[in-house]
Design goal:
By secondary structure, the chain is mainly α. It has 4 domains: about 240 residues, Hyaluronidase domain-like (Orthogonal Bundle), CATH 1.10.3450; about 100 residues; about 110 residues, no CATH class; about 60 residues, no CATH class. Helices cover about 65% and strands about 0% of the residues. The protein has 21 helices and 2 strands. It starts with 5 loop residues before the first helix and ends in a 10-residue tail after the last helix. Belongs to the SRP68 family. It is found in: Cytoplasm; Nucleus, Nucleolus. Its main location: cytoplasm.
Length: about 575
């Protein structure tokens, strides 16, 4: 939604001006008057005869024909209605400051609101033939907002409820168009949210509660708007007709019994206290994501989950001071449930982005493609880490371990992309090292995940097995190519076992027994057998030492004989 649209020119500009005091509203109203005067001069509809102004003024004559000639006629009516509304808001601000309800000012405020309603009715008639349906819808929503405010001040609750119901349908549809188109218009989104939060929803809730025919004390405002918009008799049903023509399901009433009131996450059950949240959860549950083929299909789904997280986070902040432990626990479980699904949608979208990267025709483009894949895998790993940090996840052992394994799986896939990049760049040894590292660290068992499934089928045990087979095939291929490359380059040294007729030097033998720089286990090599009888010929003795030992032995024997002669029989030899 551009800032120059009907809602942007009125509510948008007023929001940007930050009007708070009566003086602020007065200055803004005077600025609008100058702009209207400039347009009147440009369109030549200035009434100079102020005495007979009612008879000669040309503004009341603006109709569909003049609008078809020049759209600025519609802008004049739009700004006139806005000026009357700002005048009423100025008086209301003054009454709030004074703290008293002065009858004269109260009547003046209602008169200005009535004038704004009358001008907006003329505006809707003038733009009846507008071809741009979204622009026409904005004009009608603007008129419905004025009618609704007037009905609230007049305490016409049934009329206010039906009018604000139509306004809510129109604003929701305009917001959905911004989301579906992937429009990053922050101004438009902020404007629509501001109108809904500060004007439409409080007024619709008040009108529904004050209506005597309503038996409910509280209800989902979306359900109320779909149920009661048909009661409008002010000619604003065209809002529903336009929305229904563009999206018939948008105005369908949702049966209350089909709206979930509880969610279950990992054996924890939580009650949904916000009716709007329950309805939107019901919408998301009916989304056929199984048929999504493009990553863009998940963008709208991610936005819906993010909107639910934002709504519920607001409820959590509002109830932060409550002492109801059961309600606090339910809020915590529901918040984890919403963030859990939102983050898995993001993971699924990123994985599809990787799969849909364009095929490369040459090495340079392949490396560029792999660089993009690595960047996305980094984001996927970060998102998976966020899943592990969600409240309640750490206490669930099976889920926490499965998320750790999921994070490891994406890390391994990232390493596989790096290995493929090295292989594409003809750096096969580097690629082989990565594949060998993956093979040693990544088990990929049949029961890799302990949980049965992840949301949106992000990963499963069957997918892990398939990926493991692909890794094995790639590693075998790169291993073979690396072997051939190194053999062709003569990079392998000759080992001892390859030449049994050669006795290399000891240093050379140690260097060539095996290549210890290559990863893998050491294995024994063939040895050269030598018979013992051949080796016996090389055994030598120290002969000098042997003769010395012989002499010593003979001398000892002679000495021993002499001693005997000089013994008992020696007396016969002496004398």
């Amino acid at each position: 939604m551009a800032s120059s649209s009907p809602l942007g020119d009125t509510f948008g500009r007023r929001l940007s001006a930050y009007l708070t005091t009566p003086q602020d509203y007065r200055k803004y109203r005077e600025r609008l008057s100058r702009e209207v005067l400039r347009l009147r001069h440009e369109l030549n509809i200035v009434t100079r005869d102020t005495k007979n102004y009612r008879e000669k003024e040309q503004t009341s004559g603006i109709d569909a024909q003049k609008y078809s000639e020049n759209e600025k006629f519609g802008t004049v009516l739009l700004l006139l209605a806005e000026r009357s509304l700002v005048h009423a808001l100025e008086i209301k601000s003054m009454l709030e400051i004074k703290g008293q309800q002065t009858p004269g000012y109260k009547k003046l405020m209602l008169g200005k609101l009535k004038l704004a309603v009358a001008t907006s009715t003329q505006l809707t008639a003038a733009v009846a033939q507008e071809q741009d349906q979204l622009k026409k819808l904005e004009f009608l929503v603007f008129a419905a907002l004025l009618h609704g405010q007037y009905a609230i001040n007049k305490k016409r609750w049934t009329e206010a409820r039906s009018t604000f119901s139509l306004a809510r349908i129109g604003l929701e549809f305009l917001g959905s168009q911004l989301a579906e188109e992937g429009n990053s218009d922050l101004f438009g989104k902020t404007l629509l949210d501001e109108i809904l939060d500060t004007l439409v929803d409080p007024s619709l809730a008040l009108a529904h509660l004050q209506d005597s025919t309503s038996t409910k004390t509280a209800a989902d405002l979306r359900t109320v708007s779909r149920k009661y918009y048909k009661e409008n008799t002010l000619g604003l049903r065209e809002i529903a007709n336009i929305v229904s023509a563009l999206d018939p399901a948008f105005v369908e009433e949702i049966a209350e019994e089909n709206v979930p009131r509880h969610v279950t996450w990992r054996s924890h059950e939580a009650q949904i206290y916000n009716d709007e949240l329950a309805v939107k959860l019901n919408q998301i549950s009916r989304v056929g994501w199984q048929s999504f083929k493009e990553a863009n299909d998940y963008d709208a789904l991610f936005s819906q989950w993010a909107a639910l997280v934002e709504i519920h986070q607001g409820d959590v902040d509002k109830s932060a001071d409550e002492d109801d432990m059961e309600k606090t626990q339910a809020h915590a479980v529901l918040l984890t449930y919403l963030k859990y699904n939102m983050l898995f949608v993001k993971v699924k979208r990123d994985l599809l982005l990787i799969d849909q990267l364009p095929l490369a025709a040459n090495t340079a483009k392949l490396l560029m493609r792999n660089r993009d894949a690595l960047r996305i895998y980094n984001s996927v790993v970060v998102t998976t880490e966020e899943l592990k940090d969600l409240p309640g996840v750490y206490n669930d052992e099976d889920l926490y371990e499965s998320l750790e394994e999921l994070c490891k799986l994406f890390t391994v896939k990232r390493l596989a992309v790096i290995a493929a990049s090295y292989a594409a760049a003809n750096k096969l040894p580097e690629a082989l090292r990565i594949y060998l590292h993956i093979d040693r660290t990544f088990t990929g068992s049949e029961s890799y995940f302990k949980v049965d499934e992840f949301p949106y089928n992000v990963a499963s045990n069957a997918q892990v097995q398939e990926f493991k087979k692909e890794l094995t095939a790639l590693m075998a291929k790169v291993h073979t190519l690396t072997q051939l490359q190194r053999e062709s380059e003569g990079a392998f040294p000759t080992t001892v076992a390859e030449n049994v007729h050669k006795f290399p030097a000891s240093i050379e033998s140690l260097q060539n027994i095996t290549n210890i720089t290559e990863p893998g286990a050491l294995a024994p090599v063939l040895s050269k057998p030598v018979l013992f009888d051949v080796a016996f010929n090389y055994i030598g003795y120290n002969s000098q030492k042997e003769r010395t030992m012989k002499k010593a032995s003979t001398k000892e024997e002679n000495d021993s004989g002499d001693k005997k002669k000089g013994g008992f029989f020696g007396i016969f030899g002496r004398g």
